[in-house]
Amino acid sequence: MAILTIRDALNQALREELIRDENVFIMGEEVAEYDGAYKVTRGLWKEFGDKRVVDSPITELGFAGLGVGAAMAGLRPVIEFMTWNFSILASDQIINNAAKMLYMSGGQFKVPIVFRGPNGSAYQVSSQHSQALEAFYGNFPGLKVLMPSTAADAKGLLKSAIRDDNPVVFMEQERMYGLKGEVPEGDDFTIPLGVADVKREGKDCTIVARSMTVPLALQAAERIQEEFDVSCEVIDPRTIKPLDIDTIVDSIKKTNRLVIAEESHEFASVGAEITYQVMDHAFDYLDAPIKRISTAETPMPYAKNLEELALPSVDKIVAAVRQVSYL
Amino acid sequence: MAKAATGPRAGIKTDTATKNGSGKPLDSLTEKRQSADFPDVDKAIAEYNARKDSQLAAIKKTDKELLRKMLYEMVLSRRFEEKCAEVYRMGKIGGFCHLYIGQEAIGVGAMLALEPTDMVVTSYRDHAQAMIKGISPGSVMAELYGKATGCVGGKGGSMHMFSKEHEFYGGHGIVGGQIPVGTGMAYAAKYKNTGQVALCFFGEAAVNQGSFHESLNMAQLWKLPCIYICENNQYGMGTSQERAMSIRSIAKKGEAYGMANEFVDGMDVMAVREATLRAVERARKDGSPTLLEVRAYRYMGHSMSDPGNYRTRDEIAKYQERDPIVLFKDSLQEAGVLAEKDYEAIEAEVKDVVEKAAQFAEESPLPDTSELLTHVYA
């Protein structure tokens, strides 16, 4: 296995899929000559040229919609948003066109497209650049929503997303691009969509985390193990939609406790959805009310101390586990 | 007749103290167009008369069967939509229902200038355009009835006709939302070097959306074989173009992007055809896009639920004097390629087709309840 950053794992996935299928092309702001705002597409334009890696004007709705039309006509676009915050300008194309086209056309027009880019907060980029939008996009039937947290997952899921015949919302995290991890060798390494991964096995409390909160949950689990001898199981759904609720429920049947850690705001969040589904499937197995850690219900502040206060943290997750464990 | 010195707003009182940013009295922005003062129509008539000889020459050069098909499709579009209005009032069709009556020359003139492999995408005013592109009247009517035999199995309804077989990329319900999609269809044609062109219809109100401007910029920047056809029917729902757009010429907006553009008389099917053929040639030769502003007039309300109290009967009547079907029929007769009995035969054939479409829709089954959750994901 090679050790790669998430950034390079994504880059490898893109490169391999560009080689594998000539209908795959990448379009977005600064993806070509500039090598990508976050260097995810580094070197691809030099290798594949203007046709396959395309710098777009700053015109999110325009190039998202162009991608939808191109996908309907047989291509497999990978559309990069410099951040998912900018996708809000393009959300009509993602929601009204990409998500609904197959259904509206009675199954005639598939839209095999990947929209990707960093989601959530970065380092003091303030309110308009810090939103986590997975619950928003997860609310629309027709879209698949992916959120990898490791280099291997990033590569395997992106390759699967590009090969999938549905529109896929692929959410990375700017803070995590430099995170390193083992990645299996080989062009055919993929990870199926809709399958959760147990990132740490445990028996006393389940923590469901995704994207940025996965490393936080793993650190929290280590600390709780040391300080309280409580063993936490950390589950990363990896695919938010379709959600692998079975893996979560199986874990709760063992631990009887659940903490959810997420970066989005809490109102109507994915955590709220998981909470409902757990009630529906495993109500009788719960020994404590579910506890959820989310970003504070406020636009993201700029000041470093306030930003830290707003976001999920290891401390907050530890406190939540203690609460559901009555410690 | 228009008086050059007074213009279309002659007679509107201007003594109100309240002004808006445009310097016009607020009143005038909500006034209906004044009766007996439609310089556009008079100008269109003069221009039409001036090019009549060349139009007749073009008709004589065009294949007779094609001319008959053009007239047939126009009549079919008209009678089909009249039937829709009739059955809508009977409660057979649900939801929204936007009719194409008055705009037939645009769909027919443009789409019959294409190859069958060329792609088309359009707005929610899509029944007639779907048929012109090849979808059968029966499956369009069945779709309107929400039946299993509809062209998308009852999942789309009035605004969402699609056919992959006929390269018809759908009717779309968000004003201007299909313009980037059409641009992407052209992008795919260029990418795969298929030689196809993409034809993208939208109304004049869509021109005020960002999607229009974003798309034209990309299409010209990347030389995409896309033909943008703005069907200027002069009203965005109940708001006339002059109440919604700072300049009158939509064709000129193409200049802002360095894009080839033409203003076309949308009541003259031959003019629409000739302009589209020029655009197709540009698209196929070097992949360059074109913006056509085709001015017509929407005879009916925006949708079936529109009371139409924002315009006068006189205005509608004035535009109807230049009915696209009558103009074309007269020209065909003048050119000696159509006899009255040929026209009567078309009307009779259309009547039969429309009746059969409605009967087919009526007798078709509803979608099976198992269809609710199919086609959500591929």
Could you explain how this protein is built, in words?
The complex is a heterodimer of chains A (327) and B (378). Chain A is globular and about 60 Å long. Chain A has a 7-stranded mixed sheet with strand order 3-2-4-5-7-6-12, sandwiched between helices. Chain A has a 5-stranded mixed sheet with strand order 9-11-10-13-14, sandwiched between helices. Chain A has a two-stranded antiparallel ribbon with strand order 1-8. In chain A, β13, α10 and β14 form a beta-alpha-beta unit. Chain A is built from 12 helices and 14 strands. Chain A has helices at residues 6-20, 44-48, 60-72, 87-98, 101-104, 134-138, 151-163, 213-228, 245-255, 270-282, 304-310, 314-324; strands at residues 2-5, 24-28, 53-55, 76-80, 114-118, 144-146, 168-172, 180-183, 197-200, 205-209, 232-236, 239-241, 258-265, 291-295. Chain A has 2 domains: 2-183, Thiamin diphosphate (ThDP)-binding fold, Pyr/PP domains (Rossmann fold), CATH 3.40.50; 197-324, Rossmann fold (3-Layer(aba) Sandwich). Chain A has 327 residues and is α/β, with parallel strands linked by helices. In chain A, α1 packs parallel to α7, α8 packs across α12 and α9 (245-255) crosses α10 (270-282). Chain B has 378 residues and is α/β, with parallel strands linked by helices. Chain B has a single domain, classed as Rossmann fold (3-Layer(aba) Sandwich). Chain B contains 14 helices and 8 strands. Chain B has a 6-stranded parallel sheet, sandwiched between helices. In chain B, α9 (210-221) links the parallel β3 (198-203) and β4. The longest helix of chain B has 26 residues, at 64-89. The radius of gyration of chain B is 21 Å and the shape is globular. Mean pLDDT of chain B is 91; it is low at 1-29.
